[in-house]
Each structure stands twice: as C-alpha cells, then as structure tokens.
Design the sequence.
C-alpha cells in the first residue's frame, strides 16, 4: 500500500510542475558539492536514432559506408603501429636508465667492498631509486592522478561502459609513459605491462577521433567516429594492441579485450582487433630489431621476454599434473592473501594518504625501503654461484663471494624485475639455493603488495610473475631433492613457470586471456594444459576468499561496474524496486528556463531525461549532452520562426562537441531567452528502451549488459514514465555471504 | 699398433664400398680366405665401372693386412694416411697429460699444427705424384668417414678450448699476451709459495698487488676476448687458491652500519604511516543514496521478502 501512496504523491507533484527532480538531493550532506573532478560517467553506447541521424544516413552513399569501413581498418593499423612504438620507447628507456643505474651502483659497491663503507653504497642505491620515483611520483600525483596504478581497472571500466574522467586523454598517456619508465627504473617492485595496456587504449581513443582536444588540433579526419559506440570499439582494439605489445601475444590481446569488454561484441570487430594487435607486436619487433642491431629480424618477442624453453626441459608427464594443480591452489591462496593485504592498505590510503604530497612521500619511502631491503638481503646472502660461461647475469655482484663467483641473491634483487623472471625461468638447475629463493619470495611478496596502489604508474603482472616464479622454482628444487633417483623431470625452470602462472592467476583472476598470454609469451603450446589447469584452480581457490585485485580496486573506486551476470538470487527483485523515482522529465516542447534550471541543478546532475507528452506519456529520451549543444546553438522555436535562414542543426554539431561537452555553467542564457520554447522532437531518441515495472532484475541486467544501455525507462501499462533505471541502480546489488546485499556507492 | 691398423682398415673399407652400397652385410671371418685373394682385384676393377652384384665372399682382416697392393689407394695416399696417423697419435699423446691442469694450448699447439698440415694435404684437391688426389679415396669413400671424423673431433676440441686466441695465426708460437699472462701468473704463484707457510694473512697482504695485477690483466684479456682454456683454468685455480685456500676474500665486517642504515630506512615508513594516521584528516566517503519509489530502503525489502 505504501508504494501506491508514494506513487500518487509523485504524480501529483509531476502534474504541478511537469518536472519532479527537486526532491531529495543525491548526495548525503547539506553543503552543495562542486562538480567533483572524479565523477565517473556512463558511456552512451546506444545509438540515438533521431531524425538527424536518419537524415544523415539517407544522405550517405553506398561508397560512403565503404570508406567508413576502410577507415576503420586504417585506424586499427595506426593504433597497432603507435602502440608498438610506445612499447618500444618504454622498453628502450627502461633498459638504458636501469642499465645506467645498476652500472653506477655496481661500480660503487665494488669499490667499497674493498675499502669498506658499503653503507654508502646502500644510501646511493636508495637515493638513485628515490630520484627516479620522485619524478614519476610527482608527475602522477600532481599532474594526472588517474595515471596511477596499472590502468587495467580503468580500462576494464571503460570497456564495461563506465568512463572514469580523463582516462583516455593524451596527458594521461604522457604521464603514464614517463611514470612507468621512472618507476621501473627506480627499482620498485613493478612491471610495465599494465601501463602498456592503458597506453594502447589511450592511443586508440585519440587516433580514432582524428583530433586532440588537449593539443587543440583537429585533423578533420574520422569525424564519423566521434561517439561512444565507435570509440569503445577502437579502445578495445587499443587495449588488445597494448597486451599484444606487452607480452608478444596477439591472440592473448584479442582475448583480453573479449574477456574484459565482451558484453558488446561482434565477429567483424574481433578480426579488426586481431589486426591491430598483430600490427602492434610486429611494429615492436621491427623497431627492437633495429635497436638490437639486427634490422629486419621480426622474431623478437614482446616487451616481456620470457625466453624460449628448450625442448628437453619442456617435457612433462601425466604424474606431474596433480603437482601442478597443488601449485595452482597455493597460488590461489597466496593471491587471496596478497589481495586482502592490498585491500586494507588501499582503504588506509584512501582515508589517510590522499594529499598529493603525502602520496609522493609514500612512494619515495617505498623506493628507499625497497633498496634497503634488497641491499640487506644481498649483503647477508651466502649463496655464491660460479659465473657461467655465457654470462647470463647482467650485473653480477661479487661482494663477499670468492673471486669468479657471484652473489645469487643479487641476480634476483639487483636487476629489473623482468630480467629476474627470466633468470628464474631459465638459469641452470642449481643456480639458486632454496634459502635464497624462500627469502626472496617472502620479501618480494610484501614489497609488491605494498607497492601496488602507490601514486606511481605501475603494473602488477611482473611482480606477481616474479613471486610465483621464485616459489615455483623453490618447489621444483625441493621436489628434485625428494626424488634423488630421477631428478630429470623436476626441472626447476618448468616449475618456476607454473608457479608464476599460479601466482598471477591468484592475484588478477583472469582466465582465458591469461592462459593464452602465458602460452604465447613462453612460445610453447605444450604448456597449454598445465597452465590452464593451474589458472583454473588458482581462480577457484582465490575466489573463495577474496575477489581479484582489479575488481577490488574497481569496487573501492565506487565504479558502477556490471559483471558478467546478475546476482544469482535476484529474480524476485523487480524494476519497480530497483528504479530511481521520481524522474525528471521534459515536455516535448519545453521552456528553455526549465531546461537550464534542471541542467544547472548540481545536486541532481542527471544525464538522461525522458521526454513526455501530457499527461506524462513517454515519447522519447534526450541526453544532457544533446541539450547543452542545443542550448549553445540556441535552437529555440521563436528564433527559428524569426530567422528562417538559420542553418539547420546537424549531427556534425553534436560530434564536434564530443567528448568534452561544455558544462552548463559556461552557456549563457539571457532572461528573454529563458522564456523561449525548445522543440525536442527532432533531437530526442524517439524509441528508447522501456520495460514494464514488473520486469525482473536479471532481465534488466541483461539489457544493460548486452545493449550497453545507459538509461532504461520503466513505464506502466499506459506508457507513463514511472522510473528510470541506470547503471548505478544495478551495480548496487551483489551476492554476499548472506545472500543478496545492497552496496552503498560512494562519491569518490 | 694403432696407426697401422687404422691404415689397413681404411684400405679395406675403401675397397669394400660398392658391395656395401648394394646393401649386403659383409661378414668378416678368416674361414673363406682362399677365394678372396682373387676376388679383391676383380671387385675393385668392377667397382670403378659399375656396381657389381652382391659378393658373398668374406674378407679376412688378417689376410688383408698381408695384402701386397691395392689398386684404389695409391702409395702416395697411404703414405699420407700413415703420416696422419703418426701425427694424430703424437697430438693425442700430448693432449692427455695436459688435461689437468689444463695446458692443452701451450704444450700441444705445434703438434696440432702438424696434424692440421697433413690433413690439409689429404683434403686438398691438388694432384699428388701420379695424378692422384687422396681426398676422395681417404675422406669420403664410405659412410664412416673415419679420417674426417677423427680430424673434426680434434678440431672441435681445439675450438672449444679457444686455443686459437692464445696462439699466433699460423700456429707457430704463443701470443705475446699469453706469454705475458703466464709470466705474471708465475710471479703470483711464486709469491704464494713464498708466504704459504704460516699465517695466511701475511700472504693476503703481501701478494695482494701481484694477484691484483693478474686479475686486472685477466679482465682486460676477457674484454679483448684473448682468453683460451689454459689461461681461464690457470686463473680459476689461482682464484680458488686465493679465495678458498688462503681465504683472502673480503670479510663481511660492516654489519653494524649496514643494519643501522637499513633499519633507519625501515623505520621511516612506520613513522610516516603513524603520523598520517594521527594528523591527516580522514576523508569521509559520501554515500550516494538511491532515490526510490518507496520510503523504506531496498535492503529492508530484501529482508522482508526473505522472511
């Protein structure tokens, strides 16, 4: 009975003023919040089939559509090439800077080993680390905070349909690239792969628009693609290109896009994305081959080079599968632990370490501690190994070892993380002793956990792989020592690979794409089965305790993220209970003053408005962005009558304003104009999706997921608007420990 | 004994190729020695022109050794083969005692040179006296290709040992670098010997300069890639002596400053987090409350419906 009375009160108010949005403010708090910089917005994937659109489609020739299709391919090629170039740049810069740093420290350590004063080397190491991290940290914390972290959660959100502001800007790209170079060269426990994916996505978003709003340059190209639907397709291609450049895994890249953004997908797009990622891998290979002095050699794999597994060490037998699965379970457990620790740390950071200067200081401290811990580990390590004839070790440190030997701990710590992974995979059995590996795993686990979430751009792939490779190798060594008779099958490199896969799977919980990425990055299909099993088990075990790291961060950012499926036990929830109500509606011919007032009401900040004819019958849906463009061009009924010569508004005008529509405050509407009327018929979407009020939540969810909706109007039996469902209304519900729970989304 | 046997074996193999080609297995035994005496010449002549039908005669090794002459391998070639055998033996005889400590380059480079020389003669396609070339008959008349195999074994040994780096181009003498290294090494070793008795700290102190020069020289040579196995091994042994036997490596004696500095750095973040926890104002999260058609929140609805 209660809801009926409520509904009555709403409709009566609606009759009074024709707009009903001024009820309760959305925000909890009395002060009027300024439009926050961080408000995430949904993307409008749904095509607005208004009259302008139909007109344009009529005008367009058959040839025009052909050209569009061709330019899509051209854009994908460009995305691939540019992403490859960026990857190449990052790779070379990291190699140069890190090489320089390690050379300086190595010389210093050698000098001071002899004459004493190694604590000075320690301080030098810490200072160099801090210097690099300072540059990266300041850039991220002060110029573009969105460039912090790996960027994968943000891209996941984008592909899911939520735009976190400034995530695909040119400035973000620049900060990201420089930031990741600094943080890897600064010796933090980070990798450059996640940022590479983000970079690819930004490149795609930029190239496909044919202009840069940051540089204020418009190349007058690709104007047709200036809308969310097209842009999303290109961004998924860019993310794929990023993955493929990072891991040398073109197929893995496509599958990554599929796994993360699969809700809106078609087969032709797959093929185009594959094209982009292939081009990206081979652009990278081509330029790296020039850099390495072998021009034309295209077989150089991606940024992360796991090296090739030789044929005799790849062999595995059926009795090893259970061992691999146990390792998968261990990976899941460790991953869940990692995620839980990082979750608490992130909450602490959100609450207390939110000022940019504090964030920079924190990053510096982490850099210094990383250096201190690494140095102490190396200093006290007694694990000396003879130098190999082929000098696998990039920067061998002798320290207190006998002449002609090197400190094995130093190969793990005194190196870029990527190189350490490679040496864990490929060094001879016996290059590490178990104690070294155990200590390394332990320290690196906490360092990596502490590092992720700092205000530096940094990925979590390589640290996870490194942790996993270390304990995996440890497992291999222990197994070999249990079975002294046949140590051939327990090749430590193989177990390092499995451990790495398990740990990574346990932390990020990706499935299909991760399997293919690992298989492609190692260049070995033979390992497909064990890697798949390991990732599967790691995910199952990990999900039992804690969500994946990316999901945790998405949740902490309060992004209304729609997962693959609606919560399982939610069929009894109907649209009536889920929807927001009452709804702010516009009449088909609406007074300009009303529109301006509604748009400038900061407490509501709605984005889509159902258009109604009296009495409250739905006839269309119009977006805030459209209204702003209309107001800017002063498309008023009165003006149109007086000035017949006025140019008719075209779809192009809407595209030109995309994607940064001016805020309502910047549009000046005079007192006279407020009295004018505006005819929305031509511009509104005349056929918005509607559902009856008894539609179940999973049904609504499916519509959102499959069609990429932003607004879904809930109508009653006579087509009157009674509510509006948005992404935020759906993302609240999730399946918790005690059945269905409703989350409180926060304004970050 | 060895070279002569080899030589005979080669003769035999060279003759017998056509029959092997035909896929027949030839048994060696002494039983049917009688007809073989006639069979061999005819077989050889036939071999030149066309493949012969399988011959089931069986050769006897001992009889073959007394075989006066063969038509295929000329005197010249058999002489070459003989010399090859002798030099080969000489080289191997030199190598084996030089295996530990490794001196294969410095003591055997000249004998290796003679082996290379004779092999060059064998494998050259220039006609010897009597217009014969021994390359085909000695090197590639059969699938075993023994002479070639033996030689390539030696060659790969030579390559693995990197001896070419320490010996001048025509295998005449050791390079100056090598000789210099050896003399430096000797200095170091004499120094070691001198102080070997008694306290090793004395040795570490006094021989440090000699050992240091040796080390520097070695790393220079490493960069120029003028190292061969002799030098590497000598250096390895010296290093082991220095580090393991005499214990002259750097001692780990700065524990206190290192621990102090690193624990200071470890304390910094603790202070940082504590101070930001105590002094920084806590950022409150502003919750977005849904506007619903109903007054009661949906969570309550859930509970209602469940109960």
Sequence:
């Amino acid at each position: 009975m209660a809801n009926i009375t409520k509904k009555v009160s709403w409709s009566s108010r609606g009759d009074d003023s024709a707009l009903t949005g001024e009820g309760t403010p959305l925000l909890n708090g009395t002060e009027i919040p300024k439009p926050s910089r961080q408000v995430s917005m949904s993307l409008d994937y749904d095509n607005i089939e208004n009259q302008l659109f139909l007109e344009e489609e009529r005008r367009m020739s058959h040839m025009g559509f052909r050209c569009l299709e061709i330019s899509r391919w051209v854009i994908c090629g460009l995305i691939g090439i540019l992403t490859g170039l960026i990857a190449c740049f990052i790779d070379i810069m990291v190699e140069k800077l890190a090489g320089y740093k390690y050379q300086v420290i190595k010389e210093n350590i050698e000098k001071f080993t002899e004459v004493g004063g190694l604590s000075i080397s320690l301080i030098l190491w810490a200072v160099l680390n801090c210097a690099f991290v300072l540059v990266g940290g300041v850039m991220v914390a002060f110029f573009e905070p969105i460039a912090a972290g790996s960027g994968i959660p943000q891209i996941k959100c984008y592909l899911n349909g939520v735009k976190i502001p400034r995530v695909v800007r040119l400035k973000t790209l620049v900060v990201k690239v420089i930031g990741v170079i600094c943080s890897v060269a600064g010796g933090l426990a980070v990798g450059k792969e996640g940022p590479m994916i983000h970079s690819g996505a930004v490149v795609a978003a930029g190239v496909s628009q044919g202009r840069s709003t940051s540089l204020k340059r418009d190349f007058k190209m690709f104007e047709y693609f200036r809308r969310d639907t097209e842009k999303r397709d290109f961004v998924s291609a860019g993310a794929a290109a990023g993955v493929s450049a990072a891991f040398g895994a073109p197929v893995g890249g496509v599958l990554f896009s599929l796994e993360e953004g699969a809700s809106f997908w078609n087969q032709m797009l797959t093929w185009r994305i594959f094209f982009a990622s292939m081009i990206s891998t081979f652009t990278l290979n081509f330029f790296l081959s020039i850099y390495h002095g072998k021009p034309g050699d295209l077989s150089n794999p991606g940024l992360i080079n796991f090296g090739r597994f030789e044929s005799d060490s790849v062999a595995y037998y059926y009795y090893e599968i259970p061992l691999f699965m146990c390792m998968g379970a261990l990976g899941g457990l460790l991953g869940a632990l990692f995620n839980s620790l990082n979750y608490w740390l992130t909450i602490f950071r959100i609450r207390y370490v939110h000022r940019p200067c504090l964030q920079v200081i924190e990053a510096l401290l982490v850099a210094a501690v990383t250096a201190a811990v690494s140095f102490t580990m190396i200093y006290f390590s007694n694990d000396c190994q003879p130098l190999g004839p082929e000098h696998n070790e990039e920067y061998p440190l002798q320290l207190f070892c006998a002449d002609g030997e090197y400190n094995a701990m130093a190969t793990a710590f005194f190196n870029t993380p990527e190189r350490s992974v490679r040496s864990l995979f490929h060094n001879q059995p016996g290059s590490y002793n178990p104690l070294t590996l155990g200590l390394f795993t332990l320290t690196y686990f906490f360092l990596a956990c502490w590092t992720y979430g700092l205000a530096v751009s940094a990925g979590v792939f390589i640290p996870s792989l490194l942790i996993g490779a270390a304990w995996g190798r440890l497992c291999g060594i222990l197994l070999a020592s249990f079975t002294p008779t046949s140590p051939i099958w327990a090749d430590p490199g193989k177990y390092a690979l499995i451990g790495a896969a398990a740990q990574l799977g346990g932390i990020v919980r990706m499935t299909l794409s991760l399997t293919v990425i690992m298989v492609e990055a190692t260049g070995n299909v033979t390992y497909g089965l064990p890697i798949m099993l390991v990732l599967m088990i790691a995910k199952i075990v990990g999900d039992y305790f804690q969500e994946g790291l990316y999901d945790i961060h998405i949740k902490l950012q309060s992004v209304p993220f729609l997962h693959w499926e609606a919560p399982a036990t939610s069929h009894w929830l109907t649209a009536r209970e889920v929807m927001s109500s009452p709804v702010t509606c516009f009449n088909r011919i609406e007074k300009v003053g009303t529109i301006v007032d509604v748009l400038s009401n900061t407490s509501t900040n709605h984005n889509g408005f159902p258009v109604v004819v009296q009495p409250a019958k739905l006839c269309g849906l119009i977006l805030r962005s459209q209204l702003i463009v209309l107001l800017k061009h002063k498309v008023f009924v009165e003006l149109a009558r007086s000035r017949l010569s006025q140019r008719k508004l075209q779809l192009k005008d809407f595209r030109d304003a995309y994607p940064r529509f001016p805020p309502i405050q910047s549009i000046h509407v005079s007192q006279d104009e407020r009295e004018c009327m505006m005819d929305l018929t031509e511009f509104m979407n005349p056929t918005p999706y509607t559902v009856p009020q008894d539609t179940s939540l999973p049904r609504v969810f499916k519509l959102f997921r499959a069609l990429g909706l932003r607004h879904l109007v809930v109508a009653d039996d006579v087509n009157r608007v009674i509510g509006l469902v948005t992404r935020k209304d759906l993302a609240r519900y999730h399946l918790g420990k005690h059945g269905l729970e409703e989350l409180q989304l926060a304004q970050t | 004994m060895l070279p002569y046997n080899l030589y005979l074996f080669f003769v035999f193999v060279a003759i017998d190729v056509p029959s092997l080609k035909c896929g027949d297995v030839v048994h060696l035994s002494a039983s049917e020695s009688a007809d073989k005496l006639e069979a061999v010449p005819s077989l050889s002549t036939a071999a030149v022109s066309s493949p012969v039908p399988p011959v089931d005669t069986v050769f006897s090794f001992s009889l073959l050794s007394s075989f006066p002459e063969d038509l295929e391998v000329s005197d010249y070639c058999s002489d070459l083969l003989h010399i090859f055998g002798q030099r080969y033996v000489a080289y191997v005889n030199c190598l084996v005692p030089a295996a530990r400590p490794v001196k294969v380059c410095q003591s055997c480079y000249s004998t290796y040179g003679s082996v290379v020389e004779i092999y060059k003669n064998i494998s050259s396609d220039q006609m010897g006296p009597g217009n014969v070339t021994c390359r085909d008959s000695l090197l590639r008349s059969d699938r075993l290709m023994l002479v070639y195999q033996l030689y390539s074994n030696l060659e790969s040994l030579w390559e693995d040992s990197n001896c070419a780096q320490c010996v001048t181009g025509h295998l005449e003498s050791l390079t100056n670098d090598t000789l210099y290294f050896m003399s430096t090494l000797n200095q170091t070793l004499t120094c070691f010997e001198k102080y070997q008795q008694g306290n090793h700290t004395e040795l570490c102190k006094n021989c440090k300069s000699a050992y240091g020069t040796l080390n520097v020289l070695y790393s220079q040579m490493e960069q120029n890639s003028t190292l061969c196995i002799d030098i590497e091994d000598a250096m390895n042994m010296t290093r082991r002596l220095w580090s393991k036997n005499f214990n002259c490596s750097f001692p780990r004696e700065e524990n206190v400053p290192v621990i102090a500095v690193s624990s200071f750095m470890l304390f910094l973040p603790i202070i940082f987090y504590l101070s930001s926890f105590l002094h920084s104002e806590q950022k409150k999260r502003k919750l977005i409350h849904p506007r619903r058609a109903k007054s009661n929140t949906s969570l309550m609805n859930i509970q209602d419906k469940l109960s």
User: Anything to note?
Assistant: Chain A has three domains: 56-127+168-291, 318-556, 575-742.
